[in-house]
Design goal:
The complex is a heterodimer of chains A (350) and B (616). Chain A is an alpha+beta fold and 350 residues long. Chain A has 8 helices and 12 strands. The longest helix of chain A is centred in the N-terminal third of the chain and has 34 residues, at 37-70. In chain B, helix 3 packs antiparallel against helix 4. Chain B has a two-stranded antiparallel sheet with strand order 1-2. The model of chain B is unreliable at 1-6 (pLDDT under 50). Chain B is 66% helix and 1% strand. Chain B has helices at 11-20, 24-52, 63-97, 106-125, 143-146, 151-179, 192-223, 238-271, 278-292, 307-319, 321-335, 344-367, 369-375, 379-409, 415-441, 458-486, 525-531, 554-571, 578-598, 608-613, and strands spanning 546-548, 604-606. Classes of the chains: A alpha+beta (350), B mainly alpha (616). The structure holds protoporphyrin IX containing FE and copper (II) ion.
């Protein structure tokens, strides 16, 4: 008997310990500390169902442990033959009805939340962003604003933003755990969901639908800033002159290399629509290269020299002439100077 | 024709015997061995996955290899390990439990096995011939239609062949239960395991055709330039998901219901009580199966089907918790007031209750649509389905194996080793998967080759991997147990003081099972006879000649033809010369079918005199 209980206790202790060690996960990545409307709604249901279901588990556990203690074969009573009970109408009815009641308690708020999160009532009056999922990066087109970004999605806090999502290749899934639940990004139809972020901050997003070798590297960010800062960002992003950015000498050379080496075949700087590769207009302001590496010059050079070693299966590898380290370094200088706006992830508190 | 071929035979003779056998007990052994080996493959794949995830940004395996590993792990575990192991249990127990001499179609039984085996072999050949499938066991289009290389072709062909085997096996059990029951064995006197096997067979009959259709479309897209799933040419990728889950959801009930049956039998045997609320338990099983067909779209809550569809599928899914609850409480009530023996078989059954309850609990949680937007495709789901598949199906298979081992092999598995296996597996299982619920909520999506340092996912993943090592250890102990047991003492015919008919036969039973068909007088027929002081089943007929089917090599050859043809299908996209192999293989199989239908095979008789000469 002791063995059973002991092992159980040890197990749950270990689980708890691990939780304490890990907290509730990384701030702005975990669904357990919501910072947006969708994630809050989901968390309420998560808590409700956990409580209700734990109740069931508790009842099962009590009966189970009682059975194990009371009804094990006892010394001297090995040959005891228990009463062959057929069943018991009352008991059976009780354990049919109670679960039905518990399920109704869950079902009602579930239904309300489901319709709430799918509502498109305010779509016309709010910001709409066209989201395109690509192997293995994200493109954002601000509808009616002539603004294109990739990897980083800037949104104003406290406002609904409607995302109209479609894929250019296989199925992806847009997920920013601390802001909202996920929504698939399909090649054949546009799915719409809205997000509403409560606080300024940089929120980590992940692709949640298996989409190929670099599936686990398809990270992106939502950068939520106050409505004022957001307006500033919009106006900055609107008058980007793609030819007037490069300042330093190496950056100027980099810009030329960028144009001469077929980079422009896939990437755009400025407001041209979705391409084979990410739009690089505000590359210098991003916190990550390719969604996963810190935005340092070294990493940019590494990426340009051999993207496949960083994101296996990406569509950049092999599509441009081989570059020397020196050339890559100049291109990196150019790219890191692409900073059209003063509103950056830092201004969101990063 | 001699029935008692007990003299020592050479290896060749034994091999030939197994290649041509149509005896359900030997086919059970074949399923066990093949399924067991595939289980080890799937386990090795799981260990490699967990080693890759032992620390952040690990590069133990490449991204491509990782995707092959998860795909093959899932596919292998579901189709090549769990399913055949369930078929092993069904083959050993169902005919015996209903007092039959055999299954309805012994030839088809053997055909089903060989098709499954050759399908599984094709799938695993992919590892050595250019790369395994890499688009997940769910094979979602367009990732699967556009996956380069031949990996996914192996998936399509392998599953097509193995699936045909399963379908044939399922139909066979349906007919067996309908037609072969002994006199007095009414439906409402059948042991719960037989009931569950019966219902699972119905599910197989309706679910597998959907898979076949889906795989066919995928095959034509990949090999013959159709565009069912090509959006740019007017195709639709969501159709694959519907077809897959119309099969896939019932499939998980195919994987669990028979084991519910095992637990029911094990609990009542070792608590020495008849099953509590037998009728309710039967109807709960039927209800679960029925609802199992109605809820496929709960795998698709994030696809964008809209709130109406999502809500309907959510509520239907939650409803399954009710009959499942009935079953859990039925088992607890069976144990209540019993005289409980705890041995290895019973340990697995007892370990199942808390594990599966947690799995059921998270099942309702993931059925809650607006919460599932967070759980879906994360480690929470990985945790949930392992709690039900491992905590239910695998625990059940282990329970069933420990329980019926004496019937299968005439030996009892070693108790000490059995308990060691259980405890290390049980602890390892919870260590591995409990923490994954939190990993998922903390932002770890499913099928991730790496997670990043600083994402606070390190501790959880490390614990999970340590747990997996415990499970691997447990499985090794089980293998040792099997080897040790093979030299152990002979088992008695009825080692557990059983209640159902299989325990009224010898261990292992003669190849004709029952010398005289038993007469069934109620639920738990053997128990009734024991209580009445007979100790033996009353026969329903006088001793007479027994008709037995002949063995046949045709099922093996037929499946071999399809196996060869499979390679033709796969490689004809590279070089049309392979069309010869493709057509040649098919023609060979067709020829085998022709031989079968032309040749009169009436079987043979064991005469009354021979039976009388046998020691009683
Ligand atoms: C030794 C015990 C096992 C371990 C350690 C294990 C571990 C894992 C891991 C780590 C994954 C990948 C999760 C991901 O990244 O998405 C996985 C996936 C999976 N496992 Fe297991 N597993 C075990 C046993 C089983 C068994 C017994 C079954 C079924 C009978 C099973 C069925 C699956 C399925 C269907 C998948 C999904 C594969 C896919 O995403 O395509 N596993 N398992
Ligand atoms: Cu993706």
């Amino acid at each position: 008997m002791k063995g059973w209980m002991g092992k159980f206790r040890a197990l749950s202790l270990l689980g708890l310990l691990a939780l304490v060690l890990a907290g509730c996960g990384r701030e702005n990545l975990t669904a357990l500390k919501p910072k947006g409307y969708g994630a809050e709604t989901s968390l309420h249901l998560i808590i409700l169902t956990t409580v209700v279901m734990s109740l069931v588990l508790l009842v099962v556990a009590i009966v189970y442990i009682t059975v194990l203690i009371r009804f094990r074969k006892k010394k001297g009573k090995e040959d005891f033959i228990p009463k062959q009970v057929e069943g018991n109408r009352t008991l059976e009815t009780v354990w049919t009805i109670i679960p039905i009641i518990l399920l109704i308690i869950i079902a009602v708020p579930t239904t309300i939340a489901t319709f709430d999160l799918a509502s498109t009532k305010g779509e016309k009056d709010h910001l709409n962003v066209e989201v395109t999922g690509n192997q293995y990066w994200w493109h954002f087109n601000y509808k009616g604003e002539d603004i294109q970004t990739s990897q980083d999605l800037y949104v104003p806090t406290g406002e609904k933003v409607y995302l109209n999502m479609k894929s250019s290749d296989v199925i992806h899934s847009f997920w920013v755990p601390s802001i909202a639940g996920k929504m698939d990004v399909n090649p054949e139809n546009e799915n719409t969901m809205y997000i509403e972020v409560n606080e300024e901050g940089v929120y980590w997003g992940k692709c949640a639908e298996f989409c190929g070798p670099a599936h686990s590297l398809m990270d992106f960010k939502i950068i939520a800033v106050s409505p004022d800062k957001f307006d500033q960002w919009v106006s900055d992003m609107k008058d980007v002159d793609p030819d007037a950015v490069a300042g330093s000498k190496t950056a100027k050379e980099g810009e030329k290399l960028f144009q001469d080496n077929n980079c422009m075949g896939c990437h755009a700087v400025g407001s041209s629509p979705v391409q084979v590769g990410p739009n690089l207009t505000d590359f210098g302001n991003r916190t990550k290269v390719a969604g996963v590496l810190d935005n340092t010059k070294e990493n940019v050079v590494d990426w340009i020299m051999d993207p496949d070693s960083i994101k296996p299966g990406n569509k950049m590898s092999g599509n441009y002439p081989e570059l020397s380290k020196d050339e890559a370094s100049k291109i990196a200088d150019y790219l890191m100077e692409l900073k059209p706006s003063k509103v950056t992830p830092e201004s969101a508190g990063e | 024709m001699s029935i008692a071929a007990t003299q020592k035979r050479g290896f060749g003779a034994v091999l030939w015997d197994y290649l041509t056998t149509v005896d359900h007990k030997k086919i059970a052994q074949l399923y066990l061995i093949a399924g067991g080996i595939f289980f080890l493959f799937g386990g090795i794949e799981a260990m490699l996955i967990r080693i890759q995830l032992i620390k952040p940004d690990n590069d133990f395996v490449s991204a491509g290899t990782y995707n092959e590993l998860i795909t093959m792990h899932g596919t292998t575990m579901i189709f090549l390990a769990a399913m055949p192991l369930i078929f092993a249990l069904m083959n050993v127990a169902v005919p015996l439990q209903i007092g039959a001499r055999d299954v309805a179609f012994p030839f088809l039984n053997s055909l089903g096995f060989w098709l499954f085996l050759f399908g599984g072999l094709i799938l695993n050949c992919s590892w050595f011939l250019g790369g395994a499938p890499d688009s997940g066991w769910t094979g979602y289009a367009p990732l699967s239609t556009t996956s380069p290389g031949h990996g996914v072709d192996y998936y399509v062909i392998g599953l097509q062949i193995a699936g045909a085997g399963t379908l044939i096996g399922g139909i066979n059990f349906l007919v067996t239960v309908v037609n072969m029951r002994a006199p007095g064995m009414t439906y409402m006197r059948m042991p719960l395991f037989t009931w569950a096997a019966f219902i699972a067979s119905v599910l197989i009959l309706f679910a597998f055709p959907a898979l076949t259709v889906g795989l066919f479309l995928l095959m034509f897209d990949r090999m013959f330039d159709t565009a069912f799933f090509d959006v740019s040419l007017g195709g639709n990728t969501i159709v694959w998901q519907h077809l897959f889950w119309v099969f896939g959801h019932p499939e998980v009930y195919i994987l669990i219901l028979p084991l519910f049956g095992v637990f029911s039998d094990v609990f009542s045997t070792f608590a020495k009580k008849r099953l509590f609320g037998y009728t309710a338990m039967v109807f709960a099983t039927i209800l679960i199966a029925f609802l199992g067909f109605m809820v496929w779209a709960h795998h698709m809550f994030t696809v964008g089907l809209g709130p109406v569809a999502n809500t309907i599928f959510s509520l239907a899914t939650m409803a399954i918790a009710v009959p499942t609850g009935i079953k859990i409480f039925g088992w607890l009530a069976t144990l209540w007031g019993g005289n409980i023996t705890i041995n290895s078989a019973m340990l697995w059954a007892l370990g199942f209750i808390p594990s599966f309850t947690i799995g059921g609990m998270t099942g309702v949680m993931v059925a809650t649509v607006a919460a599932d937007y967070q759980y879906h495709d994360t480690y929470f789901v990985v945790a949930h389905f392992h709690y039900v598949i491992v905590g239910g199906t695998i625990f059940g298979i282990f329970a069933g194996l420990h329980y019926w081992w004496p019937k299968m092999f005439g030996r009892i598995l070693h108790e000490g080793l059995g308990k060691l296996t259980f405890w290390t597996f049980f602890i390892g299982f919870h260590l591995t998967f409990f923490i994954q619920h939190f990993l998922g909520l903390m932002g770890m999506p499913r099928r991730y080759w790496v997670f990043h340092a600083g994402d606070h996912l390190e501790t959880g993943n490390l614990i999970s991997t340590i747990g997996a090592l415990f499970m691997a250890f447990a499985v090794i102990v089980f293998v040792i147990n099997v080897i040790v047991t093979a030299r152990g003492p002979k088992a008695p015919d009825d080692p557990w003081d059983g209640r159902t008919l299989e325990w009224a036969t010898a261990s292992p039973p003669a190849h004709y099972n029952f010398k005289q068909t038993p007469l069934v007088r109620g639920l738990d027929p053997l128990w009734i006879e024991k209580m009445d002081g007979n100790g033996k089943i009353t026969p329903a007929e006088p001793l007479g000649d027994i008709h037995m089917p002949n063995g046949s090599f045709l099922p093996f050859l037929f499946s071999l033809g399809l196996f060869i043809s499979g390679f033709g299908f796969i490689y004809q996209t590279d070089n049309k010369a392979w069309l010869i192999v493709m057509i040649g293989g098919l023609a060979f199989s067709a020829a085998m079918m022709f031989v079968r239908s032309m040749k009169d095979d009436l079987g043979y008789h064991i005469t009354k005199e021979e039976l009388e000469r046998e020691a009683d």
